[in-house]
User: Fold this.
Amino acid sequence: MDDLHYATLLDVAAKLQAREVSPVDLTKAMLARIERLSSSLQAYATTTPDLALRQARAAEAEIAAGRHRGPLHGVPIAVKDLAYTAGIVTAAGMPIHADHVPGFDATVVQRLADAGAVLLGKLQLTEGAFAKHHPKTAVPRNPWHVDYYAGASSSGSGVATAAGLSFGSLGSDTGGSIRYPASANGVTGLKPTWGRVSRHGVFALAESLDHIGPMTRSAADAGAMLGVIAGLDPHDPTTLSAPVPDYLADLGKGIRGLRIGIDASYNETGADPEIVSMTRDAGTALRELGATIKAVTVPKYGPVVDAWAAYAGVETAIAHEATYPDRAAEYGPSVSGSIAGLIDYGRTVSATDLLKSHHARLAFSGALAALFADIDLLLIPTQPFADFTIAHEAELFASPEGLAAFLRFATPFNMSGSPTITLPGGFTAHGLPVAFQLVGRHLDEALLIRAGHAYQQMTDWHRRHPVL
Assistant:
């Protein structure tokens, strides 16, 4: 079992289905690994050993009886601790919710359970899923080097997936929080189209910007997880009614003939040299796989980056109106980068300014949709900085200008609701992972997964793991 913790979800699924591996033995091994590494990595907010072993025993019996539910059956996974779990604390990274025990499962949690997945526990996150951790909350540590950024909000999900503490996880992304921890920890992250995955039973940061998606060790694994959690949910009227395809059906088709857009000015302005080099190399690899690279111009993004802050602030203030400002003292320090600071800002945004932000959102989204008339995918970096240390993070996030500079490859695509996949693309000279993202048309996750799989068949960045 010790050799399996870095296996892909689909590789483990095949062994489970063939009864080469016992779900119970595998779950016990994973729980033991979590316990051994928990003090150094702090990825989990809560572990659920009793539930996990109960689910593992049920999966073992069903698989033995020939009742196989699909690729997640018996596979140990974990979810970000903002998705409700019945009878289990769901705190959203906030001490103010330390005693919050939901009476029902979030739709995504229920769908994972229905697919036969084994829930190892809940993964740690920043306060309320914004930029900083609450001072009383353990901070997940980057398994490649503890002095480096682990990826903000979904940091626990990124760390657990990279460190062999789960075979896949759920994260959320309001302004980059699937993509940043995927990049920082060297895993694959899929931010689906807004509305593709239900948000019922998930703590909100900003309702119209929040996306729930998988974080895995491969694009194919992400497709397997998305196929389980996606789809219309009567409990969430914002979910999309489009049928959920088999995201693994066309993996072998490759990407010959696909048109991939690259805006060199957008990708390289203000980006570290290692980010620039990695992104160029990704474009070269995709061309060698048969894609056509087209020079494009990304729609004017400055106004929509600025507009994101107004949207996020106002919507976060709404999400927290039951506890803020009445219980403001229980929040983290109210400074730039904290959720309290975001709420305070949101409470000052005028109706006029919010409507201007809405217009910027509509303009960018429309221009981006027009761009996709000429291309199939857009290749961009995930973040502008390589070797991003915790010290650099603290300095950068201390000002709105620094935060905006960091967000420019991420927040525009929350505002447009576009799907993206983040793929490991190499390592810095100091041994830290770097990544790029592909952006697609709405509901074109299948193409993103196919392109990501093709790239990962050619490269091995996603198969490299930290030594722990």
